[in-house]
Specification:
Elements: H1 2-68, H2 77-80, E1 89-92, E2 96-97, E3 102-115, H3 116-131, E4 145-153, E5 160-172
Antiparallel strand pairs: 1-3, 2-3, 3-5, 4-5
Length: 174
């Protein structure tokens, strides 16, 4: 009788070990999926942090450029627009204080009936003039940038319409 029990015990132990192995393999794969998911989340966080680091470096470089400027005011828009070939109305909008004594100035420019491409080219040219790198810090000054642009096309004539532009610039009170 002892001889019959040994093969049965061996088979039972073998089956128990097989099922134990299958369960352990399933747990291993489940744990691996969980670990991989956590690694993916960590990789995404690292990617976002690297993006933030790049943005911070750009902001710090811009801050250094603005700090080096001796002219802390942008050229008045009325002076920049003196040669404009279109009718416009300028109104000052709110200013917003930001870091280091700088403020963001906003000007709303309304062109009631103008050739859209002419106005946009002129406004982009204003920004490009300021974007030219000055020879010295004394020549540099803050630029005007297009922050918002609303265009209402004219029903009477193609390429014409009303433009409502908001331009922004930085300024520093000394």
């Amino acid at each position: 009788m002892n001889d019959l029990i040994k093969p049965k015990v061996v088979w039972v132990v073998a089956i128990v070990m097989l099922f134990t192995g299958i369960i352990l393999v399933q747990r291993f794969f489940a744990d691996t999926r969980h670990i991989c998911a956590r690694c993916m989340v960590t990789a995404e966080h690292i990617e976002r942090l690297n993006h933030q680091k790049t943005l911070l470096a750009k902001h710090e470089a811009a801050r250094a450029r603005y700090a080096a400027m001796t002219r802390k005011e942008p050229e008045p828009l009325s002076r920049l627009l003196k040669d404009a070939s279109f009718e416009y109305k300028l109104t000052a909008e709110d200013t917003r204080d930001i870091d280091g004594g700088w403020t963001v100035r906003r000007m709303r420019m309304v062109c009631p009936d103008a050739v859209i491409s002419n106005v946009l080219a002129f406004v982009l040219d204003i920004g490009c003039q300021g974007a030219v790198i000055a020879e010295t810090a004394e020549q540099a000054q803050p630029n005007w940038y297009l922050a918002e642009c609303d265009i209402i096309a004219s029903a009477r004539e193609a390429g014409r319409g009303e433009l409502i532009l908001v331009l922004e610039s930085l300024a520093k009170e000394d």
